TrEMBL record:
N-terminal signal peptide: 1-23
Organism: Thiothrix lacustris
Protein name: Secreted protein
Keyword Signal on entry: yes
UniProtKB keywords: Signal
């Protein structure tokens, strides 16, 4: 019985260590969107671009198993909303009752909101460009069961997402 427990613990530890090492071994390629003037680092061999949108302002990236999806885009701001308005809108979507918000942070020209929705983790970062007035955003979602796999990738996405 003790031997079986020891083996299970050892296997769990090896899994955690190998997952952590694998996350560090990921290479990234910077996707630059010239039309919306933003850049973000995309993990090679994990998320695959599906081609830019018709207006060239964004792109969807999907994992091979379709479990993870990353939406990147820039949109105009015809109502000239300020960052506070955009943040309020993000925290009050139509499906707010179906979402659990776990982290929120706002700065002068950007904010982050993350949580759970329909069995998935979601992470979104929004930048309001002071120079162009464009709203630049990415939204990343993946199954809760794969949180350990995608958490380090999410951090890299967030840190690399910037205006050009």
């Amino acid at each position: 019985m003790k031997t079986m427990l020891f083996r299970r613990l050892l296997l769990a530890l090896l899994f955690v260590v190998s997952s952590h090492v694998a996350a560090k071994d990921i290479t990234y390629t910077t996707y630059q969107n010239g039309a919306a003037e933003y850049a973000i680092d995309i993990p090679d061999d994990i998320l695959y671009g599906q081609g830019e949108s018709g207006n060239h302002m964004g792109q969807i990236f999907k994992s091979a198993d379709m479990d993870a999806k990353l939406f990147t885009y820039g949109i105009g701001n015809p109502d000239e909303k300020i960052i506070d308005d955009l943040y309020f809108d993000e925290l009050n979507p139509e499906d707010k009752d179906e979402r659990v918000f776990t982290y929120k942070k706002m700065s002068n020209d950007w904010f982050v909101v993350t949580g759970f929705h329909q069995g998935k983790v979601f992470y979104t970062k929004t930048i309001l460009s002071e120079s162009t007035g464009l709203i630049k955003k990415f939204y990343f979602e993946y199954p809760k069961a794969k949180k350990a796999t995608y958490d380090d990738i999410t951090i890299k996405l967030s840190k690399s997402f910037k205006e050009l």
